Amino acid sequence: MSHEGIIEYLNQYITLNEEEKETVRKNSVVKEFPKGTMLLRQGEVAQESFMVLKGLIRVYHTRDGNEKTTDIFTEYHPFTPASYVTKTPSEVSIVCEEDCVLFLESMEKTQELFNSVPRLVEIGHLISSDLMAKQQVQYMDFKNLSPLERYQKLLETRPELVHRVKQYHLASYLGVKPETLSRIRKKISIHPGIS
Question: What whole-number distance in Å separates Cα of residue 63 and Cα of residue 126?
Fold first, then answer.
């Protein structure tokens, strides 16, 4: 896969000229990872942040032998592990749940890009603000919505996850047991307008 996905993503925030696009292409690391690849293990220090260009990655933590899915990222979703910023052991693991093509970003590469294309600093701030706002909405939804409402919101905003993520991972992500998710899905299939 080419680097055009990164250009397309950045162009949502600011229009890059041809020279800037070429600099981004030259300084971007894009790699393929097979399904099942562990990108980061709980306890390791993250060396990279990621943007999914193709595929799906799942973020989870393990406590007392139980996995809790905390996030799921698909095409054009960037993800910066807290460990990448803090340089402390990660509280989460990240795994490719599908064959993936990822844009990998390191502190050094980011600084090189910022030095070469100073306008990217502005994009970095915009992306950070955007991601923080989305994270806050996600947290408030999780806190304030019932399991049924959380599932309905997922169907509205990210319906592809229902077919791409194993049911027990999806249940964990929604904060319910798999059997509860089964009941919710059954209820919605019988009464589609239910709330």
Answer: 34
